[in-house]
Each structure stands twice: as C-alpha cells, then as structure tokens.
Amino acid sequence: MKGNVGKSTETLRKNLIRILSEESVLADATDLLAYRNDASWFVGNPSIVVLPRSTEEVQKCMRYAYENDIAIVPRGSGTGLSGGTVPAEGAIIIDLSRMNKILELDKDNLTIKVQPGVITADIHSAVEKEGLFYPPDPASQGASTIGGNIACRAGGPRGVKYGTTKDYVLGLEVVVPPGNVIRYGGKVIKLSVGYEIGRLLVGSEGTLGIITEATLKLIPRPMYKKTMLISYSELAKATQTVSKLIASKIIPTTLELMDNETVRAIEQFKKAGYPTDADGLLLIECDGYKEKDVEEQIEIVINACKTLGATEIKIAENDQQAAQIWAGRRSMFAAYANAAPTVISEDVTVPRTKVPDIVKAIKEISAHYGIRVGIGGHVGDGNMHPNYMVDKRNKDEMERVEKACAEVAKAALEMGGVVSGEHGVGIAKAQYAMWQLGDLYVDYMKALKKVFDPKNLMNPGKLWIESGGEGK
Ligand SMILES: Cc1cc2nc3c(=O)[nH]c(=O)nc-3n(C[C@H](O)[C@H](O)[C@H](O)COP(=O)(O)OP(=O)(O)OC[C@H]3O[C@@H](n4cnc5c(N)ncnc54)[C@H](O)[C@@H]3O)c2cc1C
Predict the structure, then answer these.
(1) Are 232 and 282 within 8 A, CB to CB?
(2) Who lines ligand 1 at CB under 6 A?
(3) Could you tell me if residue 449 is inside a domain?
(4) Residue range 312-345, pLDDT digits in tens
(5) Containing domain of residue 27, as a range?
(6) How far is CA 131 from its chain centroid?
C-alpha cells in the first residue's frame, strides 16, 4: 500500500511545520530510521514524522493528511510485536509520545484520566502510591504507552485474574477522519446508551482513529501477595498443572510458563537464579486483601503442583526475592534477542485445557522445520508465546519459520483458540486473522472501516490482507 501519493517530502515538511512547529516535525533520514520498524522484524518507509502536543494538533495533522490523500500511522513507543506501527510507504507517522500527561487521578471515583503517550509503568507508580491498582501489566510496561496498549488490547501476566487493558477502559477521546473528535464513556462504571463505539476503537490498532485521551478504571490495591517458582523435570507435567489449578477453582494472579530453552536463555543473559536443569518452570503469584486468603490459595497451588510431579517449589520470602524471580521473566524477550539475531514472538491463545496440546504442537512443528524455539507464556489464560530464534539474513530459515508460525496458528485454531491473545494482528498475523475470522466477518470489519475512514488512510495494510490471498 502506497501512503504518500506524489507530495515531495520538502513540501510536506514545510506544510506540516506551518501547521505545528519546526521542532514538532522530523524529516531527516537519520531521524526517520528510528520510525521504520517496531519490535517485530517488519520494516517500512515513512515520509515524515510529526509529534503533536494536543488533541487539536492531532486534528490539524489528520485534516492535512486527509485533504492530501496521505496515509497516517499512529505510534506510541514502537514496542509492538506484530508490525502494527510499521508504516505504509510514504506515510506520515503521528508519534504520540509528547502527549504524556496524567490529567487526573480521581481517588473518589477510582479512575485515572491520561493522555495516550503516558508510559504504562508510570500509571502503575502513580496509582500504587495512593493504594490503588491498575492491573494490566505488559512485560514492556517500562516502555509501552497506554495509547498503544489500548490500540492493541495489551495483556500481561496479571491478565489471568484481572483481565487485560480492554477491561479497564471506561472512556476515550478519539480523533477520527477527516479530523473530528468523538468521545465515548467517561467516569461511569455502567453505560447503556447507543452503540459502544469506544469498544470498537479498543483493539483497532490505529486503523480507525487516534486515541488522544483515555479514562481508566482502577481498583483497590491488594495488600498481600506471594510469589513462587515451581520446577518440573517434564514440561508436559508443568502444562498439565494449568488446567488442574483452574479446575481447583483457584485463579492465581499470574501463572507463567517457561520451557528449558527459555530458562537457559534467561540464565545466560540475566542470572536470575532459575534452575537450568528444569524442563518446565511455572511462575505463580497469588494476591489478595487478607493474608489468610493468600495463604489458603498458596496451599491449594502447592498441593496441585506436587500432585502433578513438581520437583522443586521455591516461595519468595520477601519482596527482594520476588523481584529477582520476576526480573528473569521480564528479561525473557531480551534474553532471546541475546541468543539470536532475530526473534519472532508469536501469541496464540487456546482454551486452558488445551495448553498441553499446543505446547506439544509448537515443539513438534518447530522441530520439523529445524527452528530453535523457546516457549514462554501467560499459560494461566492459555496465551502462549512461542519465540522463534532465527536470523532474518538467512532466507531459507525465514521461509521455514514462516511455515512453522502458520502451522502453529492453524493448530491453535483447530483447538478452538485464537491467533493473538494480546499482541494484536498488525502485519504479522493478517493472514492468520483471516483464517480465524472468515470472509464474512472481515467484510463487516472492512465496512466499518469505510464508515470511519472512507479513503483508507488510517494505518492501511493492517488487520487483513486486501487480496485475500492464501500466502503470508
Ligand atoms: C519486550 C517486550 C515485551 C512485551 N510484552 C508484552 C506483554 O506482556 N503483553 C502485551 O500485550 N504486549 C507485550 N508486548 C508488545 C507491545 O509492548 C504491546 O503491544 C504494546 O501495547 C505496544 O505499545 P506501544 O506504545 O509500543 O505501541 P506501538 O508499537 O507504537 O503501536 C502499536 C499499535 O497501536 C497503534 N497505536 C499506538 N498509539 C496509538 C494511539 N494513541 N491511537 C491509536 N492507535 C495507536 C499503532 O498504530 C500500532 O498499530 C511486548 C513487547 C516487547 C518488545
């Protein structure tokens, strides 16, 4: 998809400087380099980058782009793993990182109003100081923006108990083509008025509009938590523990899986103290408002893990030990990147009873194609991250990994799963999304996009493949 039809970059630059200011427009080749990709392996070619400071400035940029038939790509921090913010050729990138203010923390209504460029971890620290809690916790929380989280429906380890970003969005302000502002919801917890357009915008990956403000739900911060690291000599036993635990009617706060390949990559990179002889590790955390409740949960968890053959159960004795256990898991992606030039992180999600089957399928498919894979995932909600460690300069290996990714996606679909649990579709999963959703569903999505974006200029080339072709 071509994003910029016939405008020279110099004309664009001059016009956009007139609309914004010199320091809000980047057009140098070296500046643009940083905007060509995200954390996936896709690469694009923007014509220019703008950094607005207000909703009005976003509106002005969109009006200009729409009048001149130029594609627009919203961008948070570029930590996406699906190519969502990788620009169509010649597109204008609207970088929201300067709109990074927390506008209001309402302790009486348990809400927080933020601009889209606020870093996720800054929301955590602002609310936790007040005894409040914003549960969504993508592992990228130190870098990702809330706008990007909302646009992708980001999840994280705590999703198993508390849900994901989509469950905390109460209100949105969005700039939609050709430059209008629409508002949805607000501080109210309930809403039963008209179509929920805000819900449609959550997860729309920048294809319908640009989120310029969000009101998020907060809950009281749980006072007690316990963190455990549980080792298994067989990966299959670790995966079987997942449905056993859920069937015990315990929903832990986090239930993370790491296979031996992942454990070794982490230990090589971070030295988190993980046992490198474990074939599978579970990182389980339970929390609550009363110490006794947490102790009871822990007892049930320990019994379930022992029944399924856990070889070692380590319970963190203090916050420092818990932080060390988490430091290993949080460095997972960096550890893979340390182990191979290119990491392709997939995101299939299956019903929890199917976790052992999908893990087995990932291992078998990767072995068949001769691809090194590490599995880490939020298994408590059935969300698996097969992380393929490859080298994008190796054409043959890239062809094999593409086949492996596609087969894993198909396997997840056959198990009643979905092709993405939290990373979104972007470019990477456009074909798989079409397999999952089917032609009719995609036609409805296309019709909805036409209502918002009749010229198809909002982040074109994402979510589906225009040709509807089989190959990826
Ligand atoms: C090490 C690592 C760990 C990760 N862990 C997790 C995890 O645990 N859980 C998880 O869900 N994801 C995870 N991710 C993926 C990524 O961090 C998330 O998808 C995150 O939500 C992206 O935020 P961002 O600000 O970087 O968005 P970007 O990558 O900049 O953009 C992502 C998408 O959102 C759109 N967008 C951005 N801002 C706006 C806006 N204001 N309005 C409209 N559209 C917008 C973009 O156009 C693009 O389609 C991880 C990534 C890395 C690199």
Answers:
(1) yes
(2) 38-39, 73-81, 84-85, 96, 116, 138-140, 144-145, 147-149, 151-152, 154-156, 205-206, 210-211, 333, 422-423, 459
(3) no
(4) 999 999 999 999 999 999 999 999 999 999 999 9
(5) 9-95
(6) 26
